[in-house]
Amino acid sequence: MTDAWTWVVDHGALWLPYVYFAVDIVLRLVSLIIVPRNRRPGSAIAWLLAIMVLPLIGFPLYLLLGKARLPRARREKQQVVNRLMRVRAQNIPDSELDEDVPSWMQSAVRLNRELGAFPLTGNNSADLEIDYETSIAAMAADVRSAREHVHVLFYIMGLDETTEDFFAALAERADAGVTVRVLYDHWGALSHGPQYRAMRRMLDAHGIEHFPMNPIQPIRDGAFQRPDLRNHRKMVIVDGEIGWMGSQNLIASHYDKPANIRRGLHWQETMARFRGPIVSELNLLFATDWYYESEQMLPEETVVRRSPDTSGTYECQLVPSGPGFVSENNLALFNQLFYSATRRIVAVSPYFVPDESMLAALVTAARRGVEVELFVSEIGDQFLVFHAQRSYYSVLLEAGVKIWLYRAPTILHAKHVTIDDSVAVIGSSNMDIRSFLLQMECSLMIGGTDAMEKMRSVEGTYRSRSRELTLEEWTQRPRTMQVLDNLCRLASAVV
């Protein structure tokens, strides 16, 4: 044995190249079999290219990040919840749509119900808030009105000067005997270390039950788990009567990052405050996430209640999405609405990296005469995504899409869509591949004339703070920027 080992060591320069060559060939061949399986062609090609160029690096990365699957225990819970939700949905009829809504709206309602099992609810009201600190103050005021329970879920949460009053409100109600439950994404909150630790200390000090969502535990259930599957939802529900949801995280508008502060960056958001039956549906979605992380199944009768306020006139339907669902719910909804539009589409998205189907839907809409507007930021906070989304501007501009660049140094982080004068969708979902495949998102479809007027007012404000990007300007950008954008587009497909 010693002689054999001595020979191996002494002749390493002779046999190592052959081993490397054999492993290289095996990894390339295996990747051709497993990578394209049940994967978008663009994503498969990007992964294969990465593996073919550097097999010993690309293949392990594929094993690490190549499958958008939740941990096994979470998948089993998701299946249980999905079955319960579908049984519940069978016994709850959809609210009747107004007679003047277009025929395709009923089709959208059926699609959403099939995807997420949430019914269309009527008699809701909603208000929009686009001022960052005002929305946090309003949520804190609603928390202070709580009598029974407060449910809070945010992708990013941290205790700082901007959010301290909100956390003080949670503490006050918890000390008064109100049940307060808090969920936050593990990586989203952990990435803001000092604020994250301060938040946990305060929650613990007041006996508030809280859990990190999708905790980063690479080895779970006896197998490696993808670490970048995140819960990206943002919700606050008070007594099942008041519900907030939208794009805003619970942290200062510069995210407490020194680099952002030096650049003068601030985030612009849109949040919606709801009253009416839709709040119970939001509460039910929170209860499912609470079950996944805490193992506690909240009784449906305590979560879903008859709303005391049914004076509103909006029809609302919740559409959850994420890797726990078979279909890409948010992508399916967006595409269905884009193809249904006859007059106007306005899309606001901070990270716009569409797949082929969404890009085709928007380009087709523009070419058939629909007025299409896309709002994005003039500058970006994420290098790869920012340059990847810029690679789509040429084809959009050539098709007649108007692109509005929200002026620096503000990052437009709002996420909403309006179609004709019929329906709006607001929530946490970006129009990028991460939101379609890897992140748990919450979108809400709203119908109602008054709701559309409020959305148009927000769009008008954003338009006044933006400048239009023209095709002439875009074609004159430096050649190096074109190359960089296209390279980032290719890299962004590796999901």
Automatic annotation (TrEMBL):
Q: Name one GO molecular function term.
A: cardiolipin synthase activity
Report the main location listed first in the record.
membrane
List membrane-spanning regions: 15-35, 44-65
Compartments, as annotated in UniProt: Cell membrane
Alphabetized UniProt keyword annotations: Cell membrane, Lipid biosynthesis, Lipid metabolism, Membrane, Phospholipid biosynthesis, Phospholipid metabolism, Repeat, Transferase, Transmembrane, Transmembrane helix
What EC class does the entry list?
transferase
Q: GO biological process annotations for this chain's record? A: cardiolipin biosynthetic process
Family annotation (CDD domains): PLDc_EcCLS_like_2
Looking at the record, the residues that make up the PLD phosphodiesterase domain are: 227-254, 408-435
Which SMART domains does the record associate with it?
PLDc (SM00155)
The protein's matches in Gene3D superfamilies, at most eight in alphabetical order, are given as: Endonuclease Chain A
Question: Known EC number(s)?
Answer: 2.7.8.-
Query: What cellular component terms from Gene Ontology apply here?
Result: plasma membrane
Task: Tell me what topology the record assigns in the membrane.
Answer: Multi-pass membrane protein
Q: Quote the protein name from its UniProt record.
A: Cardiolipin synthase
- Species this chain originates from: Brachybacterium vulturis
Tell me the organism's taxonomic lineage.
Answer: Bacteria, Bacillati, Actinomycetota, Actinomycetes, Micrococcales
Query: Quick one: which gene encodes this?
Result: cls
